[in-house]
Amino acid sequence: MTVRLLIADDQELIRTGFRLFLQTQPGLEVAGEAADGHEAVDMAAELRPDVVLMDVRMPRMDGVEATARLTAAGSPPRVLILTTYDLDEYVFGALRAGASGFLLKDASRDRLLEAIRVVHAGEALLSPSITRRLIEDYATRTGPPRPPAALSAGLTPREREILLLVARGMSNPEIAAHLVVTEATVKSHIGSVFAKLHLRDRAQAVVFAYENGFVQPGGCR
Protein backbone atom coordinates (compact mmCIF):
# COMPACT_ATOMS: atom_id res chain seq x y z
CA MET A 1 0.00 0.00 0.00
CA THR A 2 1.32 3.43 -0.96
CA VAL A 3 1.45 6.12 1.72
CA ARG A 4 0.46 9.51 0.33
CA LEU A 5 2.32 12.44 1.86
CA LEU A 6 1.76 16.19 2.02
CA ILE A 7 4.77 18.34 2.94
CA ALA A 8 3.94 21.64 4.66
CA ASP A 9 6.86 24.02 5.22
CA ASP A 10 7.36 27.69 4.39
CA GLN A 11 10.95 27.09 3.26
CA GLU A 12 11.08 25.90 -0.33
CA LEU A 13 14.52 24.34 0.03
CA ILE A 14 13.34 22.18 2.92
CA ARG A 15 10.25 21.07 1.02
CA THR A 16 12.36 20.25 -2.01
CA GLY A 17 14.85 18.28 0.07
CA PHE A 18 12.12 16.19 1.66
CA ARG A 19 10.39 15.63 -1.66
CA LEU A 20 13.53 14.58 -3.54
CA PHE A 21 14.31 12.01 -0.88
CA LEU A 22 10.83 10.72 -0.09
CA GLN A 23 9.62 10.29 -3.65
CA THR A 24 12.43 7.82 -4.30
CA GLN A 25 11.39 5.57 -1.40
CA PRO A 26 9.28 2.49 -2.11
CA GLY A 27 5.74 2.70 -0.80
CA LEU A 28 5.75 6.50 -0.49
CA GLU A 29 4.20 9.12 -2.74
CA VAL A 30 4.56 12.88 -2.30
CA ALA A 31 1.08 14.07 -3.24
CA GLY A 32 1.79 17.77 -2.78
CA GLU A 33 3.59 20.62 -1.05
CA ALA A 34 2.18 23.54 0.95
CA ALA A 35 3.96 26.76 1.87
CA ASP A 36 1.81 27.60 4.92
CA GLY A 37 -0.97 26.29 7.10
CA HIS A 38 -3.77 27.61 4.91
CA GLU A 39 -2.39 25.79 1.90
CA ALA A 40 -1.88 22.64 3.96
CA VAL A 41 -5.54 22.56 5.04
CA ASP A 42 -6.83 23.29 1.54
CA MET A 43 -4.53 20.81 -0.16
CA ALA A 44 -5.25 18.08 2.38
CA ALA A 45 -8.96 18.42 1.62
CA GLU A 46 -8.23 18.10 -2.09
CA LEU A 47 -5.45 15.50 -2.14
CA ARG A 48 -6.49 13.35 0.85
CA PRO A 49 -2.95 12.48 2.03
CA ASP A 50 -2.37 9.75 4.59
CA VAL A 51 0.33 11.67 6.47
CA VAL A 52 1.10 15.39 6.63
CA LEU A 53 4.65 16.46 7.47
CA MET A 54 3.84 19.74 9.21
CA ASP A 55 6.24 22.56 10.01
CA VAL A 56 5.32 24.57 13.10
CA ARG A 57 6.27 28.15 12.37
CA MET A 58 4.72 29.26 9.10
CA PRO A 59 3.11 32.50 7.86
CA ARG A 60 -0.66 33.12 7.61
CA MET A 61 -1.50 29.99 9.62
CA ASP A 62 1.00 28.13 11.81
CA GLY A 63 1.26 24.37 12.08
CA VAL A 64 -0.67 24.20 15.35
CA GLU A 65 -3.83 25.77 13.95
CA ALA A 66 -3.48 23.84 10.71
CA THR A 67 -3.18 20.60 12.66
CA ALA A 68 -6.28 21.41 14.69
CA ARG A 69 -8.27 22.07 11.52
CA LEU A 70 -7.03 18.92 9.83
CA THR A 71 -7.74 16.61 12.76
CA ALA A 72 -11.19 18.11 13.30
CA ALA A 73 -12.27 17.05 9.82
CA GLY A 74 -13.78 13.70 8.94
CA SER A 75 -11.24 10.95 8.19
CA PRO A 76 -8.28 13.21 9.05
CA PRO A 77 -4.72 12.49 7.96
CA ARG A 78 -2.08 11.68 10.53
CA VAL A 79 0.06 14.73 11.32
CA LEU A 80 3.78 14.50 12.03
CA ILE A 81 5.15 17.78 13.34
CA LEU A 82 8.56 18.88 12.08
CA THR A 83 10.45 21.17 14.41
CA THR A 84 13.91 22.69 14.69
CA TYR A 85 14.11 22.49 18.49
CA ASP A 86 13.09 19.63 20.73
CA LEU A 87 11.41 22.06 23.12
CA ASP A 88 9.74 24.25 20.54
CA GLU A 89 7.07 26.23 22.40
CA TYR A 90 4.47 25.23 19.82
CA VAL A 91 5.02 21.48 19.90
CA PHE A 92 2.81 20.78 22.90
CA GLY A 93 0.05 22.84 21.34
CA ALA A 94 0.34 20.73 18.22
CA LEU A 95 0.01 17.53 20.22
CA ARG A 96 -3.08 18.94 21.92
CA ALA A 97 -4.42 19.84 18.49
CA GLY A 98 -4.23 16.21 17.44
CA ALA A 99 -0.74 15.68 16.02
CA SER A 100 0.53 12.12 16.29
CA GLY A 101 4.05 13.11 17.25
CA PHE A 102 6.99 15.22 16.28
CA LEU A 103 10.39 14.87 14.67
CA LEU A 104 13.43 17.10 14.67
CA LYS A 105 14.33 18.46 11.24
CA ASP A 106 17.91 17.30 11.63
CA ALA A 107 16.83 13.67 12.12
CA SER A 108 18.45 11.05 9.91
CA ARG A 109 16.76 9.83 6.74
CA ASP A 110 16.13 6.44 8.32
CA ARG A 111 14.51 8.11 11.32
CA LEU A 112 12.25 10.13 9.02
CA LEU A 113 11.12 7.01 7.19
CA GLU A 114 10.51 5.21 10.49
CA ALA A 115 8.50 8.17 11.77
CA ILE A 116 6.27 8.21 8.71
CA ARG A 117 5.61 4.48 8.98
CA VAL A 118 4.92 4.63 12.72
CA VAL A 119 2.49 7.52 12.37
CA HIS A 120 0.77 5.98 9.35
CA ALA A 121 0.30 2.74 11.31
CA GLY A 122 -1.74 4.64 13.88
CA GLU A 123 0.90 4.90 16.58
CA ALA A 124 2.37 8.03 18.13
CA LEU A 125 5.96 9.07 17.63
CA LEU A 126 7.05 10.38 21.01
CA SER A 127 10.69 10.07 21.99
CA PRO A 128 10.67 9.15 25.70
CA SER A 129 13.40 11.61 26.70
CA ILE A 130 11.98 14.50 24.70
CA THR A 131 8.45 13.72 25.81
CA ARG A 132 9.40 13.89 29.47
CA ARG A 133 11.11 17.25 28.99
CA LEU A 134 8.36 18.69 26.86
CA ILE A 135 5.39 17.63 28.95
CA GLU A 136 6.99 18.32 32.31
CA ASP A 137 7.95 21.80 31.13
CA TYR A 138 4.31 22.41 30.19
CA ALA A 139 2.99 21.00 33.44
CA THR A 140 5.42 23.11 35.49
CA ARG A 141 4.13 26.25 33.85
CA THR A 142 0.43 25.45 34.05
CA GLY A 143 -0.05 23.52 37.29
CA PRO A 144 -2.45 20.75 36.26
CA PRO A 145 -5.55 20.14 38.40
CA ARG A 146 -6.55 16.99 40.19
CA PRO A 147 -8.29 14.48 37.93
CA PRO A 148 -12.09 14.34 38.15
CA ALA A 149 -13.20 11.41 40.30
CA ALA A 150 -15.19 9.94 37.41
CA LEU A 151 -12.05 9.64 35.31
CA SER A 152 -10.11 7.92 38.08
CA ALA A 153 -12.99 5.56 38.84
CA GLY A 154 -13.24 4.48 35.23
CA LEU A 155 -9.78 2.95 35.18
CA THR A 156 -8.56 -0.16 36.94
CA PRO A 157 -5.48 0.22 39.18
CA ARG A 158 -3.34 -1.44 36.50
CA GLU A 159 -4.70 0.81 33.75
CA ARG A 160 -4.06 3.87 35.87
CA GLU A 161 -0.50 2.68 36.53
CA ILE A 162 0.12 2.14 32.84
CA LEU A 163 -1.31 5.56 31.97
CA LEU A 164 1.18 7.10 34.40
CA LEU A 165 4.07 5.24 32.78
CA VAL A 166 2.94 6.25 29.29
CA ALA A 167 2.79 9.87 30.48
CA ARG A 168 6.36 9.60 31.69
CA GLY A 169 7.41 8.75 28.14
CA MET A 170 8.02 5.03 28.58
CA SER A 171 7.68 2.75 25.56
CA ASN A 172 5.69 -0.50 25.60
CA PRO A 173 8.84 -2.65 26.08
CA GLU A 174 9.97 -0.40 28.94
CA ILE A 175 6.55 -0.61 30.59
CA ALA A 176 6.49 -4.39 30.17
CA ALA A 177 9.93 -4.71 31.78
CA HIS A 178 8.97 -2.36 34.60
CA LEU A 179 5.77 -4.24 35.43
CA VAL A 180 7.20 -7.68 34.60
CA VAL A 181 4.44 -8.49 32.10
CA THR A 182 4.41 -9.17 28.37
CA GLU A 183 4.27 -6.44 25.75
CA ALA A 184 0.99 -7.92 24.55
CA THR A 185 -0.48 -7.37 28.01
CA VAL A 186 0.72 -3.77 28.03
CA LYS A 187 -0.76 -3.18 24.59
CA SER A 188 -4.08 -4.64 25.72
CA HIS A 189 -4.23 -2.39 28.79
CA ILE A 190 -3.31 0.68 26.74
CA GLY A 191 -6.07 -0.14 24.27
CA SER A 192 -8.53 -0.34 27.16
CA VAL A 193 -7.35 3.03 28.51
CA PHE A 194 -7.82 4.60 25.08
CA ALA A 195 -11.33 3.18 24.79
CA LYS A 196 -12.43 4.26 28.28
CA LEU A 197 -11.03 7.77 27.98
CA HIS A 198 -11.95 8.19 24.30
CA LEU A 199 -8.37 8.77 23.23
CA ARG A 200 -7.11 8.21 19.72
CA ASP A 201 -3.47 7.42 20.37
CA ARG A 202 -0.47 7.62 22.68
CA ALA A 203 0.07 11.32 22.05
CA GLN A 204 -3.42 12.14 23.28
CA ALA A 205 -2.91 9.86 26.28
CA VAL A 206 0.21 11.76 27.35
CA VAL A 207 -1.51 15.12 26.98
CA PHE A 208 -4.63 13.87 28.76
CA ALA A 209 -2.67 12.56 31.74
CA TYR A 210 -0.98 15.89 32.38
CA GLU A 211 -3.91 18.15 31.61
CA ASN A 212 -6.18 16.20 33.97
CA GLY A 213 -3.69 16.01 36.80
CA PHE A 214 -3.03 12.27 36.76
CA VAL A 215 0.65 13.15 36.93
CA GLN A 216 2.74 16.14 37.88
CA PRO A 217 6.37 16.95 37.02
CA GLY A 218 8.70 14.50 38.69
CA GLY A 219 6.00 12.32 40.16
CA CYS A 220 2.42 11.10 40.09
CA ARG A 221 -0.74 11.32 42.13
UniProtKB/TrEMBL annotation:
What PROSITE patterns does this protein's entry cite? HTH_LUXR_1 (PS00622), HTH_LUXR_2 (PS50043), RESPONSE_REGULATORY (PS50110)
Recorded hits in Pfam families, A to Z, give: GerE (PF00196), Response_reg (PF00072)
Q: Where is the HTH luxR-type domain?
A: 148-213
Question: Which keywords has UniProt assigned to this entry?
Answer: DNA-binding, Phosphoprotein, Transcription, Transcription regulation
The record's InterPro entries line, in alphabetical order, gives:
CheY-like_superfamily, NreC/VraR/RcsB-like_REC, Sig_transdc_resp-reg_C-effctor, Sig_transdc_resp-reg_receiver, Tscrpt_reg_LuxR_C, WalR-like
Q: Which residues carry this modification: 4-aspartylphosphate?
A: 55
Which CDD domains is this protein grouped with?
LuxR_C_like, REC_NarL-like
According to its UniProt entry, one GO biological process term is: regulation of DNA-templated transcription
Domain Response regulatory residue range list: 4-120
GO terms for MF: DNA binding
Phosphoprotein: present as a keyword of the record?
yes
Q: Does the keyword Translocase apply?
A: no
Protein name as annotated = Uncharacterized transcriptional regulatory protein YxjL
**Gene that encodes it:** yxjL
